[in-house]
Amino acid sequence: MSGKILRYFIVDDDTASRTMLKRIIEEGELGLVIGEAESGVKSITPILTMDPDVVLIDLLMPELDGMETIEELIKQRYQGKFIMISQIVNKEMVGEAYEKGIEFFIHKPINRVEVQSILKKTTEQIRLKDSLLAIRESLAKIDPAKTTSRKQSIKEIVQPILSDMGIIGEVGSNDIIAIIQYLINQDEHDTQLPPLKDLYRAIAKKSAFSEADIKKESKAIEQRLRRTISLAVNNIASLGAIDYTNPEFEHYGPRYFDFQEIRTQMFHIQAGQKKLLNVKINNKKFLQVLYLEVLEKYKQN
Q1: How far apart are CA 186 and CA 193, in angstroms?
Q2: In CATH, what number is assigned to the domain containing residue 85?
Q3: Rounded to an integer, what distance in angstroms lies between the CA atom of residue 200 and that of residue 205?
Q4: Number of C-alpha atoms within 13 angstroms, CB side, residue 37?
Q5: Domain that holds residue 197
Q6: From start to end of the chain, where are the E strands?
Q7: pLDDT tens-digit profile of 90-136?
Q8: In the Cβ-directed half-sphere of 237, how many Cα atoms lie within 13 Å?
Q9: Does residue 140 lie in a domain region?
Q10: pTM for the whole structure
Q11: Gap between the Cα atoms of 137 and 147, Å rounded
Q12: What is the pLDDT of residues 47-65, one digit of tens each?
């Protein structure tokens, strides 16, 4: 496996599950397991010390469960990715998990094919994020006078906007780009979005084939978007809390979000509160404004 070798940490109170996951990762050359723990309590210090790229964590554990452990790690500024291992998956739990920062679910009993597929997707996301950062650094060094003009692609227009909001490379950013590409590639450009469920379904159909899978992926797209837009709200609020005249804050804050929610989060940050508030997220407003801004730039370039 070329490129960056991912480092994993496994948290599960079941020894057999930890052993099986470790074997799948190492035999499949998916990365290195640099540590494991039998409980959430015992995992926090080594995870913060070792700083793995990915934490695979069981939902149901004594003392601290998976969700509570993730909250504590994020509170202590761990910035890696989380994959939840769970025997129980319902709509409410999935929604809460995406809000907390879960990237994917691995279902118990553990299946080798499912684990390999999910970890490969995670690897692709991390490598994409690293590549985009490297590209951005390289572009910053290019002399504009030596470049030739060409029409920008929709993706090239969307990415800097998502970068300004601090969400480029997040799992939901791919869904956002796919939705904007879908809308602009339509023969007629209506200024109003179709129902969101229709948009999610159109994107889901590109990777899912059965009706059940399409419904499942549509719901996952909605949750990934909500989580990513929530992160954008927090990032923009943080900019405003530091400098009310920040150009990104002035441009994106009142246009893309409920500005009252932004202000509430700003005051919360300025008050020195470490744990951010759960703000209201409006997926449709965000996508509507982004679509119109990208459409205008696409027609002009």
Answers
A1: 12
A2: 3.40.50.2300
A3: 9
A4: 24
A5: 152-300
A6: 7-11, 32-37, 54-58, 81-86, 102-107
A7: 667 766 777 777 878 888 888 898 899 889 888 887 877 777 777 87
A8: 25
A9: no
A10: 0.52
A11: 16
A12: 999 999 999 999 888 888 8
